[in-house]
Amino acid sequence: MWDERVPVHVAGEFYDLDGFRARRDVLRDFETAEVGDVTGKTLLHLQCHIGTDTLSWVHRGAARVVGLDFSAPAVEAARSLAADLGHGPERAAFVTSDVYDAARAVPETSYDIVYTGLGALCWLPDIRRWAETAASLVAPGGFLYLAEFHPLTEALDDATGSRIVRDYFRREAAVWEEPGTYADPDAPTVHNRSVEWQHTLGDVVSALAATGLRIEFLHEHDVSLFPRFENFEVQGDYHRFPADHPRIPLIYSLRASRADEAGHS
Q1: Residues in domain Methyltransferase type (predicted)?
Q2: Cα–Cα dist 161/155, whole Å
Q3: Cα angle, residue 218 at apex, residues 53 and 31 outer, rounded to 5°
């Protein structure tokens, strides 16, 4: 499914790669504020897709980034985009691997920052295994940063987001058969089966805490990147509920750090 959708994403307006080549940065303002200055640091991006977020960190000053994705066409697209922007593999490398095998696949044993961007965790059945793998790649004195869509939104009705209509604690997989893609719903596609899992906020935080990382913060944001609910309004770079709608969290972000060699977080 993902392999088939890569050409659609590369050519389409959603990712707008021509625009990205010009502006070179698609990171969200809260991400850059919460991650902070990346100048001179190494960064690993897990589940990087076609690499736009990964390469944005290069343009923000990271000394070296590595992007990892299980779709070989996505990795090839990311490498091509990096080359277009003048970045060789010594500055921006991309590897094909299942995220659970990341520790064996990436070129370095640890990174100053391990980053996972929006829309990644729902594709993983085992959040504890993900946390253990991601945490193992955080260098002493480094941190993991995660931004993700808030699981509460999946319990609400799709029209107004005002009613709870689904089980927040659902554990079974949700299987979908839908043509197209979030980047182009009308795109003709053949491989349309996808499987998703819901991970509660408690599951994610507890999984990371169990690895020994120290949770520095957990923030919740009342903005989204796409029209998740039918009554959303576009406000700047984000989608939000109308002003008269009660605010609920739509995205969350967290940072979890590893102590340095001296034992300081």
Answers
A1: 44-144
A2: 9
A3: 25
